[in-house]
Predict the structure.
Amino acid sequence: MEFNREKIIVIGGNDAGLSAAGRAKRLRPDLEIIVIEKTPFIGYASCGFPYFISGRVMRKSVSGPSIEEIENRRGFQVWTNHEAVQLDLLKRHVAIKSLLNGEEKRVRFSKLVLATGARPLIPQAAKINADNIFTLRNFADAERLVNYIKTNSPQKALVLGAGFLGLEMAEALRQRGLQIVIIDQAPKLFQNYADKIAAIIEESIQSSSVELILDEKVAQFDIENNRVQNAHLVKNGITETDIVLLATGIEPNVALAKNARIPLGKSGAILVNNRQETRRMDIYAVGDCAESQHLVTKKSAWLPFAGIASKQGRVAGTNIAGKRMLFPGALGTAMAKTFGLEYGHTGLSLSQAREAGFNAIETVITAYSKSEYMTDATEITVALVSDLTTKKLLGAQVVGKADAGQRLNILATAIAGHISLHELEYLDFGYTPMISNIWDPIAIAGNAAQKKTKEK
Amino acid sequence: MEFNREKIIVIGGNDAGLSAAGRAKRLRPDLEIIVIEKTPFIGYASCGFPYFISGRVMRKSVSGPSIEEIENRRGFQVWTNHEAVQLDLLKRHVAIKSLLNGEEKRVRFSKLVLATGARPLIPQAAKINADNIFTLRNFADAERLVNYIKTNSPQKALVLGAGFLGLEMAEALRQRGLQIVIIDQAPKLFQNYADKIAAIIEESIQSSSVELILDEKVAQFDIENNRVQNAHLVKNGITETDIVLLATGIEPNVALAKNARIPLGKSGAILVNNRQETRRMDIYAVGDCAESQHLVTKKSAWLPFAGIASKQGRVAGTNIAGKRMLFPGALGTAMAKTFGLEYGHTGLSLSQAREAGFNAIETVITAYSKSEYMTDATEITVALVSDLTTKKLLGAQVVGKADAGQRLNILATAIAGHISLHELEYLDFGYTPMISNIWDPIAIAGNAAQKKTKEK
């Protein structure tokens, strides 16, 4: 019996991998499942790291469960500190190396899930060794940063990259009392966003005590005692810093797949179908290392977000267990809350829509989130990207002091439901002054977009 | 020229009527439009009355604009304190009576909009004259109550009806320091809601300092000096009270339509098509006096909610102005916030769905609204009513301390978009720990509903 038992190897022990392993084991308790994880941690809450670093949440809230917890509760094995170094698709085994003692062994598999995630993109100038340069991808990274702050009490931080992570980390470090400079090489914050939305977010940073410098890069770091002391900026001279945080984007971690000649998509992430199967039999890919079907373009796209990772994991796990389950596609919806604002995007931006060949327009409106006579009413700004041809929604961005995030999810639902701009204006939302408004910002946005489609 | 000028009469000067008049005038400034309003007030914010009564918002926030404001800003005429008493469809005139001096005149019209709203249903025992019995339908009602409270400083209030208005008013009066008893004749709070949702709302009332008595009615009121002193309850003896608030439901105000033989729907409200036209040429009906196409049953239904009223008004105004505009249908989405909870419903309840002939099931889940490690994370309970045959959503109810209202609007959007339960589980929501969770309560609800459809 044991000899023929199906053996599932999952490479990567964060959201996507654990989701695949857990679902497969739940549906088929007879499966032998081993999750291989390079770091000492599994199932850590990456999106919560900024709140761990700011001190708002505790270590155990974001460090993930212990191996014992997983093994006892969910019934599959976990090998942390192990790296999958080579994949043999013909012989169906994977070479796994212990990062503790360097030993390598081959493990056979019936099915294999690639959940290798993504890794930080490091700007040229930062490809150096220094104790005070940090990335923030896994829990070991987060812990290293927290420990460094506790031990060295840095006063100044330089954050490279003004995306979601950069801004969240700028705020977290500010809350720990550090002076912050954020630089980004783009001339505009959130380049894909409507100008007004980006301007509102920029204003929230400028009006906090954080310095934001756009259209700027680090030319070189001065290092002393293995620590960065200064950053030479291309345009703005030299800035002193005690720590450097790199938040300059990520790339899919696909070396293992690539070496095994598993086809990648245009983005460089692994191509999968809607069962999360790669182009190679019995090899699945999920999460940040894989592409997804984009619900708007209907094309394969790289959408490395935690929600998608968990969902793809669930789909892969279900299919591995022999039940058919399809991933319905994704929009790349993402949101953040920094410096008093909630904001985010779903679907295509105006430029993405035009690149994808849509006859697209952008409309932007601002309206009260709830009855304006309520003292806590605040404004929400909604940008819609609409298709002039079909009069449907292609994408959206939203920003506001409150309730903007859930509005974004309403728009994601509207796109998934192929709702027309006319229907968007007339969606039957519940109204009560403490929560909403008679004409919701979304209805007003739908009205504005419709008007513009008629002008054209 | 003046002789042939088109003349639009709108009967009713609240949301629906003003929305129709405003839209028609904006599109066709040449139209002569007169809005007839029985009370001294127009465009008052009925849903905000509880907050005016509690003292949280000011009079001017809910009393509506002045006639001058409307006439100057929006360009149509308003006759307050005037009642339309008879409608002659053949001769195309309406008899209008001044409630100030009793004078009556006939006004001819080219098109007429019925926006006569709804009126409170008065329980038999309350069909009496007393200075301290209140309904709360128009601003005059609200002002009478506020003035009575200021002048007489009542200590005890009896609220009849534990629906949205009853609970909102119980809380408002409690905030003014009154002791509150709410009674409702139904044996269960929110009878149409899933048991767990209703129980959570009931618990919020019981744990506040408000007494809720279900399965109870007033048999008789004791009146002295034109004031109710006591209420004789059928089962619970005599209760003293200083004021009585009636919140026992509403009925459509259709006497004018009925006398003119304009066809009504099964609900007793006026039948309209999706251009808001009644079955009589050039006569429109909008708002609480009219029915709507229900998006789920595809049948005409009475859905007397403010959001729908404004939208129907806009549709009627657009069509009156000669541009085609269709009302896409409604779900009867409604929400409230009382005693620390947000809650509401959209679409059909389980019993409504079964009555309408659907093979319906109900599933209820509870999950965190945002990452549970955030200190302000609270639970949301979602009940879904799903169709076993199509595996789609028919309705939903939601309750939670925060963010439940917007979740309800997401579900309303999902129903409008005909999203399947499978898609609901996989909707691509944005995730960030401060706002949301990797598996949103809505995704978890979609998963639970799907599981149950598979068991059946």
